[in-house]
Amino acid sequence: MKRSDRLVAMTNYLVEHPMELISLPFFSDMYGAAKSSISEDLAIINKVFKEDGIGYLESVSGAAGGVKYIPDVSKERAGKIIEKLCLELEDPSRILPGGYLFMSDILGNPSTVRNIGRLFASRFTGLNIDSVVTVATKGIPIAYAAAEFLHVPVIIVRRDPKVTEGSTVSINYVSGSSKKIQTMVLSKRSLSSRENVCIIDDFMKAGGTINGIKNLLQEFDANVKAIGVLAEAEDEEEDRVVEDYMSLVQIKNVDSTKRHIEVIKGNYFEYKNRE
After folding, report:
1. Which of 272, 213, 275, 273 is nearest to 242 (CA)?
2. Are 167 and 188 in contact (CB under 8 A)?
3. Which of 93, 114, 166, 224 has CA 20 to 30 A from 10's CA?
4. pLDDT at residue 51 above 80?
């Protein structure tokens, strides 16, 4: 195989297997090249990843060592993605009765969802996440996108038990916005004890739902290492019950009468990982 062909093939393999440790002999056997040549190729790929702002290669030394692709997003690229989200969400035609916003088109756009997932993953790669947890239904697309970059499974918390879930654990929680008692359930087979999880959701107001998920995960002795939301609402009248989270955008004001929406960037750039 020509070196140019090998570079393309290796790059594609690394991108499709993020966070996975790959040994140099694996690449050497797959492409019929010496380890020294593979090492030079990986250096080139790492340089391009960094220049393009999409991540980097991490080398692990030792007999069981190798290289793994760490997804990341440069500050410039992240800024453009978040700015575009703000502009899209400020479209007055999104306003629905009751002051809600239509977001299904954003959550249904594969390119946008992938970018959102990459942004989440870039902040959570160093936390040794074992699984991504979300609640049905609108948070599912971005949860899968983040899980793809983190190379972990997705676990879906449901509002009602399903016969296909087998035995479940359920809890009652108080919705932060409506103050109503609601129920959420999770299959007993979903999580192993002491797993590190991150919670992903599409929207957060007071945080009652996310707080409910945290309480449910306590039944599994899970460690909630991070919380990520696409959009958070600014509501001075609500007491937020979740504090340690990362948001991409913040919806400051929705004026149904004047048909005006104000959206600003969230705390993505200020967020610090909780080790």
Report:
1. 213
2. yes
3. 114
4. yes
Residue 272 placed within a domain: no
**Does 252 lie in the same domain as 132?**
yes
Confidence of residue 162 (pLDDT cuts 50, 70, 90): confident
Task: Say if pTM beats, i.e. exceeds, 0.85.
Answer: yes
Q: Which residues pair with 66 in a beta bridge?
A: 60
Cβ contact 56:46 at 8 Å: yes
> What's the pLDDT score for residue 236?
58
Q: Which residues form the domain of 53?
A: 3-71
- pLDDT of 176 above 70: no
Strand 223-233 to 246-255 pairing: parallel
Mark whether 112 and 9 lie in a shared domain: no
Residue 59 lies in a domain: yes
Six-digit token pair at 45?
């790929």
Least confident window among 2-6, 29-33, 134-138, 158-162 = 158-162
Q: How far apart are CA 139 and CA 199, in angstroms?
A: 10
Q: Which of 44, 71, 98 is the last residue of a domain?
A: 71
Return the structure tokens found at 199.
């919670």
Domain count, the chain: 2
User: Which of 45, 71, 97 is a domain's end point?
Assistant: 71
Residue 206, both tokens: 């007071």
Q: Residue 81: enclosing H or E segment and its boundaries?
A: helix 75-89
